Amino acid sequence: MSKKTIVMFSWILALTISCDFAATFTYHQALETFYKKAKPSMPAAESDGRTPTLNQKGAISPTLDYGTLSFLEFGKNKRILEVGGAYGNVMLEALHQSGSTIYHLNDLDERHLGIAAFRLQEKIDQRKICMAGLGNVQFIYGDITQSSWKVKEPYDAILMANVMRFLTPNQIDQAFSNLFTSLKSGGRIFIIAMTPYVNRYKSFIPEYHQRIKDGAPNPGFVKNIRHYANNDGKIQNQINNITDGHFMFLDDITLSNLAKSAGFKVLECTFKPLSYKSESWELDGRETVVLIAEKP
Ligand SMILES: C[S@@+](CC[C@H](N)C(=O)[O-])C[C@H]1O[C@@H](n2cnc3c(N)ncnc32)[C@H](O)[C@@H]1O
Predict the structure, then answer these.
(1) What is the CATH number of domain 3-294?
(2) Is 51 helix (H, G, I), strand (E, B) or coil?
(3) What is the pLDDT of residues 215-258, one digit of tens each?
(4) Residue ranges of domains in the chain
(5) Is 162 in the pocket of ligand 1 (CB under 6 A)?
């Protein structure tokens, strides 16, 4: 059988699997399927160093934050998954640190996975990454909020950074349930979420505090995020791309309660400042909340 036929055959197999749950691709399949035809490329970085996604689901931070560094430390040489990992920044760092780590990268957008696979190929060619086996990396094209989400084998650790904000309350419940079933017992989740304490949306803070006082369910959920955008002019270029979509802000107590309801034991859930300078986001050092929780 020719190499081309084998690639075609593995494609068909992977797409067939995608009918009932998230489809898994090897590194070569991801390059063929998601990169070689359309050759997507990463947009230019914004003034604070963040690189926008291709699907208007936020942007990628220029530095690694506390939650991500904790995930990399805990997950080294283990079997780990990143949900919503976009262009693969954390994957490249994990594999640079150890070629024995088994890394599965998930995203909702196939172009992001294609770019991640291409970047991985570049690092391998430059000998900056040397994997114990090419099968150590897999690309999972799928949506963590689907009830049909399934993984072949549970993980030691899962990172989900800067994704919760795009989900509705029901989707967050389903995502937590999927994270729980995707982990081994003793495995850990590392979640980084956005709080209302950000310059860009600071007009929402009084409303948020009132909702907390009233005991409202899902106090951080807003139906149209554009209503709360800070129009003071200084960050105009960064808020031009804000969509009319819904948005979820979380805090330490709300995020911790969501994890507990899904069955997790919370090890840590605290506010953390941004790991990079940004006029658009920086407010008072509580811009993000990091949850580290264990499956009993
Ligand atoms: C703001 S980016 C964050 C990327 C990276 N985790 C980081 O922190 O730099 C959000 C990413 O999550 C992905 N995403 C959004 N909703 C998702 C879902 N339901 N399932 C999987 N990925 C999702 C988007 O496609 C996008 O690549």
Answers:
(1) 3.40.50.150
(2) strand
(3) 999 999 999 998 998 877 666 666 666 778 999 999 999 999 99
(4) 3-294
(5) yes
